[in-house]
Structure formats: C-alpha cells, structure tokens
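Below sits my pick:
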Amino acid sequence: MKKDSGVGRWLDKVSGGAQQAFARSLDRHLVLAVTGLSGAGKSAFITSLLFQLINFRDARLPFFKPCAEQRLLAVRRIPQQRLDWVRYPYENSLTALSSEPPCWPEPTKGVSTVSLELAYRPTKQPLATLTNRALMQLDIVDYPGEWLLDLPLLELDYRQWCELFATMLPNRPEVPALTDWKLSIDTIDLDAPADEFHIAEVAQQYAELLQAWRCQGAYLLQPGRFVLPGEYENTPLLHFFPLMTVSQDTAKFSRGSVGEMLEKRFEQYKSKVVKRFYKDYFSRFDRQIVLVDPLTALGAGHNQLLEMQQALLQVLGSFRYGRSSIIRRLFSPKIEKVMLAATKADHVTPEQHEPLKGLIRQLLLTEENPWAFSDIAFDCITLASIRASNSGKSQLTGGPKPMLKGVRLSDREEIITFPGEVPASVPSSQFFNDHQFSFVPFAPPVIGKSDNQVPHIAMDRVLQFLLGDKLQ
C-alpha cells in the first residue's frame, strides 16, 4: 500500500478551516519592475503585458505555461497599495491604440505602478494539496532607465565628475545649446559669493543641453534626473552642473562660494535623490525587465551604438551584487531574475531576430562585464510588445526575398519594405561607412475593434520567464 506524503498526513490532522487559512498564507506577492532607455517602448510593453494577462482567454500565449496548461483561472485589476505612487495610465494607452488613426501610448516620465491579482491552479506542493485555486498579487512598477545611469555617481566626488564630463565633451555633437551653456559658465567665478538664482539658470541651461544631446541620439546622460526629473522637477536638488575648469588639483572652495554650493548640491543629489531611489524603490523589486532599442542605435551610427553599449553596461551595474558592490552597501537586494529585451523585433524580418539577439549579447558580453550577476537568473530576448507589421516573401528575380508590410508612422502610408540585415556582432566604424541601416518606424495596429487580442512577438516567452515559476 502506498504511504501518504508528509503533507497528506499533516492535513489529516487539521480542520478544513485551518487548511484554508494556511493556503491563504501561501498566496504570493511579486513586484515586477520595467525600465528601459528612452525610446525603448516601455509604455507599449506595459500596455501589452496588462492586456495579454487581463484578456488571457483570448490572447495567443502558447509559451506561457499557466495559459497553455489552462491553469490561469482569472486576472483582475486591484487597487495599488502604494498610494503615493502614480497610477499607470492603462486606460489612456488603450484609448490611444484604439483611436482612428491608432497612436502609440504616451511615454511616462517618472515612476508609475499598476496591480493585478492572478488566480491560478497550483501544481507545486504543499499548495497543490491545500487548494485548487491560489492567488498571486502582481505589482508592475515602471521607471526610467536613465535613473540607473546615476549609480556610478555615488563613487565620484564633484571634482571627479567634472573631470569625467570634460573627457566626454569632445565626443558630443555640437548643438546650439552647448554654445549657450559654454558662454554662461565662462563667466562663472568659483570664489564669488553663491547666487542661487544664477546657479538655477545655468543648471536649466545644462538640462536643456542634455535634452539636445538626447535628441541627437546620445544615451549616456548624467545626471539622469536632468533628463527625466520626475518629482524633483524645478527643485534646488537639480540646481548644479559640471565645470571644465574644476579638477582634483583645484583648491578647496571658499565658504559660501559658487564652487562650494555646486559641490554641496552634487553631494545632496547623490544622497537625497540617487540613494533614495535605490532604497525606497529599487529595494522592493523582485523581478526586472530592461528594454532596449538597438535598431535605432544602429541607424544613428557607430558612435551612438557604442554609447548605448556604455549606457547599458552602467544600467546592468545595478544588478551586480558582489560583496563590494555599491548596491549591497545601500540595502540587501531582492531581485532574482533579470531579462534584457531587444524591442521592435517587428521592424526586421523574422530571420533577423537571432542576429538581433546576438548583437545584444555581444554588446554586453565584454571582458569587463562577463554577465557576472551572482545568483540572479538572466536571459536575453527579442520581442515586439505590439506587433505593427506582418512578414512575408516577395517574389523577385533571384528568388523570394523576406519583406515586411506595415503602415509607415510618418505619413500613415501602407508600405512593403526589406529593412535589411542586422549584424550579429558589433560592427566596426568602417562597416557603418559602407552600410546604411534604415529601419522604418511603423504605426501601431488598431486594437480592440473586433477581438480581445493585441498582436505581439514573444510576449508569452517574457511572461513565462518573469512569472511562470511563481504560478506553479
């Protein structure tokens, strides 16, 4: 005769009410953080993720096991617990996508969140023995990836930061905002009494300079809050800027001087903005997905691709938890899974998805960054949160050629195009001289008119990696 399991013998000794109470105590709570560098498609991703889960019965999610095995029972929106966090504008995003003509969701500018409750049939013990319906609360937190670029600032003082800026300046494009800012800082006397109003004006010019560089395709922009200030917009915490005349050899700033105020503001930014973000927000995250748009960087040129690489390596530094890491000095990290997703896979033909993934892997797999993420599970994927094109083959001389069909965003014209091949490794500067990348931005498809589906590429694989093990 087969012996009962330990769980089964224990259950025989407790009442049904106690069993139910114990099952409720095993309900799970997961915080999924979503970030990405500017233009990577965070809003489209979150909108699609919510739509796929809420409408899971109609969604096409073959690689998301809870759906494929019919164990996902119900999904509903619930009130968020953090009332001081902005609510993610899901309804506005759906309205944009279902309008005529459809529009991409508006990008968010700070932290926002949305909460779901997922009911599922468990398969793992002891929960599977206790109940056939378990619950998991999923909190999705959206925040700008630019904020993660500030982590290295914690290891710099003001003078070191000024030196770093001076070394990067020659590689920056010449824009009118740079000329204006240089004229302003050329008149600054570090030993003069601090004029808070004037410092605020020059800091605003510096923020405008970063925005101008951002429009030119720059990625490595610090401080990140000058680009996306969030709740610190127009506060004195953002009233500072680097000076090319400052170095480690510069004499100590006199009390009450311009130099002292800039130095103090830099230190206050580190302690009250950067450290606070990591302690108050980042420390709560269980899972993380980082979205990146390598196709736009390829189209912008060799320098932009390398700068995107530098920015990504700095972003991923937030998930390296060695004993001497900055993160571990601030708090005990919880993140156990990280996914890096190359977005806009629908802007290339299907056979280019693997080269696109290979490009991302090589951008990150450097001697300085051998994906040493300690105990963190890490994966890389190519996806289209909302697929805006259809693939096919065009019969041309020499045989069929893969093509894409979609609506061009700029003029709303339906086009058929071959976007070209994606290099599977980081190309040389000479390669860019001989090749031109032209990935056409597509308009989104109309959704919500005839069915409860949002077309996608690989969202089911994303859900499986980030949520699948928690729904067993």
Summary: The domain at 21-143+285-387+448-471 is CATH 3.40.50.300 (Rossmann fold).
